[in-house]
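User: quick one, fold this
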Amino acid sequence: MPVLLYFLAFATLVFAVLTVVMRRKGRSFDGMIFKFLSSFAFMSISIVGYGYNTGIDHYYFCLVVFGLMFGLEGDVLLGIKEIAPKFKMKLIAMGTLSFLIGHIFFLSAFLRIGSFSFIPVVFSIAVAVVAAVLMRVLKFKINTPMAALAGVYYAFLWYKAAVALQLYIQTGTLASLLGLIASALFIISDTCLAFLYFTPTKSKNRLVAVELSTYYIAQTLFALTIAVY
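Assistant:
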């Protein structure tokens, strides 16, 4: 792969680290700026990867880029809530919906390579039921519409991860491996977000660090699949 891809991947992680640092210092606006720069960096990886991989399936490229774009939009919406806490819950809902659409595009990219199976569907439904029970047991402070959206979103994350695992088993390619790791990291990242948003956690700084680091590594890996597809 070209050196520029490694540089952009490194830049994504550096900006993500700076986002965490700014958040810990209470500098929400600066943290939001670095978060946007991180998102711009992983979008750039997809474009450079497309130019590098002359044999890329153009439809696959479009699906992944749309997934990253909706992720960028979700970043913007969730970033704004840091400086506009009055609209926090609305922005969280809008950001969640944007990320959900992005994951639908990622899933479509996976299915472009592999084949559909009902096993991941059944698995994700079971996860959704377990997640709903856990939200009640852990007493999440969340209203019914948002709980429904969060349940659908979380089930979809696990469905996408199950499809990614199935795809890796079927193909064994580097692209499918990166997609699988990215899907797993997204589950970790958004699980942390759920505790940050809906529970009075005492380990906020630690959860923010885990959430952001896993999220940006995941997006970077998704973007890199374009170069190695």
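User: anything notable?
Assistant: The CA atoms of residues 128 and 145 lie 15 Å apart.
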